[in-house]
Amino acid sequence: MSAARPLTALRTLAVIAALPLLLTACGYGSESTDDDKQTEVAADAKKLSADEVKIGYFPNLTHATALVGVQEGLLQKELGGTTIKASTFNAGPSEIEALNAGSIDIGWIGPSPAINGYTKSNGKNLRIISGSASGGVKLVVNPDKIKSLDDLKGKKIATPQLGNTQDVAFLNWIAEQGWKVDAESGKGDVSVVRTDNKITPDAYKSGSIDGAWVPEPTASKLVTEGAKVLLDEADLWPDKKFVITNIIVSQKFLEEHPDVVEAVLRGSVKTNEWINANPEQAKASANAALKELSGKELPAEVIDPAWESVTFLDDPLAATLDTQAEHAVKAGLLEEPDLKGIYDLAPLNKVLEAESKDEVDDAGLGAR
């Protein structure tokens, strides 16, 4: 495959990401929020090779590994005297910019911005070092206007952002139905309306959209407004699994502080294990973190169904990331990328082996 050159749509994303008006609670459209959080460590705790590690993530349920790991001290426990400095973001592109600038060292992020960040730097700025979550994306619609998938033709369906993970998935699904849509304008047999997740529920209530292909908790928020789930994206994937959140690291930090990276991964693995063993406690912990970050928690009618649709796991599901990149190419949003080297799973597999867990695979896209 040839080296990637993102097209106009992907350059547009960088502009969109810089616009402060595109704030959202679900991970698309703003720069980092002003809530950097320094965790407390014991005075006698032993430091690793760095005094601190700067991590980034979204105030989003699909980033609950980070939310819970910080909230419960599970990440800090593995780092000893090396302090966590946590920052939250509402956009993948701005998190990539922070990684490139050294403002963060490690981040939780979706597949599309990870792919874009890797290809736009010609493979020199980041590595994916772990998975974190799968699923949590649904097509929800107005049941008075849309009763079956065939009824989508001619309707207005929202996605979070041009070229983002859900936008690419919906464009690919439309193409598989044999329908035509211009990827950049969203015009065609279905009108794809790029709508900030924060205002999607209001757009639905006003009737300006007929449904949305969106991540949680936006999907469940729409259901509380009378929408119905027409399709769970997990049903379109083998074993109903597809990557929604990865962990990335700057290559410089990985080279200079492998012990810190390994400690963060150990904390992530143990956090996912705790989440899966204690789902109700973990859900409450994630909601408490969201309240601390946003000022309010999610109501039960939103968080309960949203939480159930997300799977927390260490496997990056590398083959599904490769497929998502192919979907972006087919949609005309990305030139065929060379993703060889985007993964370095050796540190994760070392942690998994020590925890007597199965190793994970990079689908042939491992570090050169």
Task: Describe this protein's structure.
39% of the residues lie in helices and 17% in strands. The two termini are 15 Å apart. By secondary structure, it is an alpha/beta fold. Mean pLDDT is 89; it is low at 1-34.
Q: What key attributes describe this structure?
A:
seven-stranded mixed beta sheet, 14 helices, alpha/beta, five-stranded mixed beta sheet, globular
SSE blueprint and pairings:
Blueprint: H1 8-18, E1 37-38, E2 52-57, H2 64-71, H3 74-79, E3 83-88, H4 92-101, E4 106-109, H5 111-120, E5 126-135, E6 137-141, E7 156-159, H6 165-176, E8 191-194, H7 200-206, E9 211-215, H8 218-224, E10 228-232, E11 243-250, H9 251-256, H10 258-277, H11 279-294, H12 300-308, E12 310-312, H13 318-331, H14 346-354
Parallel strand pairs: 2-3, 2-4, 7-8, 7-9
Antiparallel strand pairs: 1-3, 4-11, 5-11, 5-12, 6-9, 6-10
% residues in beta strands: 15-25%
Question: What is the radius of gyration?
Answer: 19 Å
**Mean model confidence by pLDDT:** 89
Termini gap: 15 Å
